[in-house]
Amino acid sequence: MGRKSNNKSDKGKKKGGKVMDAAQLARKILNFLDNNFGEEFNAKQIIKKLEIRDSVTKGGVEPILHKLAAGGSVSKSPRNYFSSTKDPEFVEGVVDYVNPRFAYIIADAKFNVEEDILVKEADLKNALDGDRVRVMVLPMKGRTGRSEGKVLEVLERSRDEFVGRVEISPRFAFVVPDFKKMHHDIFVHKGDLGGAEHNQKVVVKLTEWREGDKNPTGKVTRVLGKAGEHEVEIHSIMAEFGLPFEYPADVVAEADTIPEQISPKEISARKDFRGITTFTIDPADAKDFDDAISYRKLDNGNYEIGVHIADVTYYVQPKTGLEKEAFDRATSVYLVDRTIPMLPERLSNGLCSLRPNEDKLTFSCVFEMDESGDVLNHWIGRTVIHSDRRFAYEEAQENIDNQSGDFFEELTLLNELAKKLRKRRFDKGAVNFETVEVKFKLDEKGTPLGLFVKERKDIHKMIEEFMLLANRTVAEFIYNKNKGADTFVYRVHDHPDLERLETFSNFAKKFGHEIQMGEGNRISKALNKLMDEIQGKPEQNVLEQLAIRSMAKAIYTVEPRGHFGLAFKHYTHFTSPIRRYPDMMVHRLLQHYLDGGKSPESESWEDKCLHSSDREKRASNAERASIKYKQVEFMSLAEDKDYVGIVSGVTEWGVFVEITETKCEGMIRVQDMDDDYYEFDEKNMRLIGSKNKKMITLGDQVNVRVVATDIDRRTIDLEFADNESNDRKPKRR
Prior knowledge:
single chain, alpha+beta, Arc Repressor Mutant, subunit A, 27% strand, disordered N terminus, disordered C terminus, RNA-binding
């Protein structure tokens, strides 16, 4: 845009603008038409859009347009309207709605687009976060230097229901969504409120969104209740992530018709382990026991260790309601106060659960091992077991520690073998991610009375090692049958992106930790060294979480690409079919190959893998949201005092601080830091006071107090405790 000239002697200029030469003007017109591909403009409209103010340049627009048209650079209609002749690129992808002003489109892999495509809010065509869309990529890059585009069509809505708080005025109502990436309030006619009252939490379904309307219209389908109540907030999280509230009645009825008695014919078709010492080890409150371990000493001095997994696919047959529902859910979801199971209770806690003193059908991976933990032989097949004992983790650990109690000798030997397996895994380049897991003590109403960090002891690691061994063995068994040509479901974890690792390395330096990055095993060793260094330190949780985020995400796929984090060439999920659908897929394919079957086509299996990975991500997000909700509620009820924290993030709008005592993260907003004006130093990830030169940087230990908590937004607002200009009392919202 031109600036007004104050020099009256400037020739050829008129107040309000400056003259552009013909080449400049031609480039500007071409850029404008290319970036508005598919639209036509006449000369007057182009002058207005380009904000050309001086008469000389205005007069040059139409001749240049005709010249460009004659040369084929632009197209001219009979009515003297002009448009771009460039060929745009059309792609399909998923919307990542970053903020109210713009979104990114993550193009499908088949389009080979190197970077995400920026789309301004006005060009989204009412697309929402997670929607699949068709996009026209503009020929010219935008001012940001990245590809920009326009949504042409919404191919598939990712969701049409949202959770939010009702705001009712005399003439109309709106639902303000909880979902942070839904940037539009939803208009609701008074007659479509479904009895909802002002400020109640509801589920609203989108019914209409005409092009040009600022807000969509919706209808309340479920009134959840008063905001802030435990059950209401948990139901809000379930609805927000599209989690089911109950099992369909017909599917429950189908499960109830499955006979409990195992036929002698079925038992005779399986390898019988009922006479061999067998037990389960699970959390104290678990009811779905999907794995058991058997142990016996062989005559040759070696050990036979059996990993026995609930044979879910014996009970859940293809093309049944049970199968359809299990596939749709794809995983059990563990919120802070409840489990949303993949299978109905009759199966998950009954027929399939490996309860003690009952004959149970299993799919097993049985190992012959020596004292060094080397696997000499293995056998895979369907079995029947009879568990002798159900252990909680704490009981089994106590028996090892005290060298007394049920099966303490067997538990001790298994633990020693597991340690050898674990050491060998780390020697080969496995990464030791021991993440901090926060648990809550809740009263009968769901109110958090306290929180604690779950401790991982030897017994947890023992069970983990044998499950990893079984998963790896099954994957390698199928891969080696035909050098990976047979369709199978693998759990893969790609090598980390070196650029992201470098960013993490620079972050760790802010906490005083040097990471010497290399490739392959050297990356693993550097990360393991860091994990050992930060054990028990205030920055442990922050760095563990950031390290995980810098890694690639593990997914399900039919491609046998290996697992970086575990340092396994091939890996799968075989050991938890009660709570994971991919394990059911693995069981079916495994038995198919054991029966001599040929490899099925891979495309439908890959589609199931993609669905399972998506459902896993949804479950993880819902679980995190429920933890965050309880953390916010806990801090709203916590003692009004100063807390020690670690600066876990610095942005231009605020400082994130993780409170060391509670592992809860909150933010101190720059706008509330009134002791100085702070500027953001992006390169060094710090804020610097313009007058006092005070620096706030990653890793700083600070004292903070809680200013406000917001359960709807699941946020905690903090302030520096040593900020003497601020002695406000905490506010709860």
